[in-house]
Design brief:
The complex is a heterodimer. Chain A has helices at about 5-20, 25-40, 40-60, 65-125, 125-160. By secondary structure, chain A is mainly α. In chain A, helix 1 (about 5-20) runs parallel beside helix 3. The N and C termini of chain A lie far apart (about 80 Å). Chain B is an all-alpha fold. Chain B has helices at about 1-25, 25-50, 50-70, 80-100, 125-145, 145-160, 165-170, 175-195, 200. The longest helix of chain B is centred in the N-terminal third of the chain and has 23 residues, at about 25-50. Classes of the chains: A mainly alpha, B mainly alpha.
Chain lengths: ~160, ~200
């Protein structure tokens, strides 16, 4: 092997030494390095020093989290978890109410027709004639729903303020 | 060996169960996880920000974020890596905001900081004291490194994470993690050689 090639190889292995001390070489790198260490006393000595650094790094004592911090954190995080959970429940409830209110509108229109004009109005109903009434009826339902939602939200925010 | 494996499996199963319970909103599981990770997470944050008061604040913020985002956690992922990623993102944001410290620049007053926990605690045999002293020198030199290297060394040597896990926490390719690890160690050795005599830290 030429001198230049030997130097290059030596440099390549020198770069692997800190990684060897960190224990992150793959199997083939480890094997090649072991062979090189066997014939290169320089690298063997250097690896010892790197391993010393690694050992000292692993020996740095673990700072202990203050007990008061841990208990405070548990309380705060549990409160946040509860809030998140009730927010999710509220969102689910809102989605269900939305579906329910659409279903209610769809069902209540024929019922209103039935009570106002009897069976004939349902059998002979034409959307072309009755669409204005349908729009007014739907808008009224939604306005009533929106007013109820606003009242509920105001009540809830008042409750939160006093809690 | 079998006992160690069984105990590691038990820990993993316990952890998975706690994470699964937390995803269902179980408050006790949250308390168990905070207890389980308290020292590791605090140590990692202290390594990143170096100031105990800031580490405490970030510790709290990390768990608040866990409580808010646990439903987004993919249970097939590694919880350690996810938790440390959350902590790291908060710490990096904090460092950027509070100190305007760039990720690859030295902090000048860092050299004087040593973790509070490194103080000797009671009488000990001379070899233990010597080992503590050497670790203290290494800890001081570690604190002097840029956060880019500090964090990768902390994750590898203190948290004992695999390269793949570190890559997940740092959101960086494996080759980058390897090169940061090598450069971090080289920097650390340079600092140790420059600040202490070889007999002091070896």
């Amino acid at each position: 092997m030429s001198n230049a090639k030997k130097v290059n190889e030596h440099e390549k292995f020198r770069e692997l030494l800190p990684l060897a001390a960190a224990g992150v070489l793959d199997a083939s790198e480890e094997q090649q390095l072991a062979v090189h260490i066997g014939v290169c006393s320089d690298c063997a000595a250097s690896l010892d020093r790197w391993q010393q650094i690694g050992t000292n790094l692993r020996r740095i004592p673990t700072p202990q989290a203050p007990a008061a911090l841990v208990s405070r954190t548990v309380l705060l995080a549990q409160t946040r978890l509860t809030e998140e959970s009730s927010r999710r429940t509220e969102r689910r409830m809102m989605a269900m109410m939305l579906v329910f209110s659409w279903a209610l509108v769809a069902i209540s229109w024929p019922l209103a027709q039935l009570f106002a004009h009897g069976w004939e109005s349902l059998l002979g109903f034409s959307f072309e004639q009755g669409w204005e009434n349908f729009v007014i009826f739907t808008a009224f339902c939604w306005l009533a729903g929106a007013a109820a939602a606003i009242l509920l939200a105001m009540r809830r925010s008042r409750q939160r303020r006093f809690a | 060996m079998i006992c160690e494996f069984a105990s590691a499996m038990e820990v993993a199963v316990g952890l998975d169960a706690d994470v699964a319970r937390l995803r269902r909103g179980d408050l006790e599981a949250l308390a168990a996880l905070v207890q389980r990770y308290q020292h590791r997470l605090y140590r990692y944050l202290l390594r990143l920000v170096r100031q105990p008061a800031e580490a405490e604040d970030l510790f709290q913020q990390t768990w608040l974020r866990v409580a808010s985002q646990i439903r987004r956690f993919d249970p097939r992922r590694n919880f350690d890596a996810w938790l440390f990623t959350l902590a790291r993102n908060l710490a990096i944001d904090h460092l950027r905001r509070a100190h305007l410290q760039s990720l690859d620049e030295h902090d000048e007053d860092g050299a004087t900081m040593t973790p509070a926990a490194l103080r000797a605690s009671g009488p000990a045999p001379i070899d233990v004291v010597m080992a503590h002293e050497r670790a203290r020198f290494v800890a001081a030199a570690l604190d002097d490194l840029p956060v880019l290297y500090r964090e990768v060394l902390a994750l590898r040597f203190e948290e004992e994470m695999k390269l793949e896990e570190i890559a997940e926490v740092l959101d960086a390719p494996l080759s980058t993690v390897k090169s940061r690890l090598r450069r971090g160690l080289e920097n650390l050795r340079g600092t140790l050689d420059a600040r202490f005599s070889r007999t002091e830290w070896q």
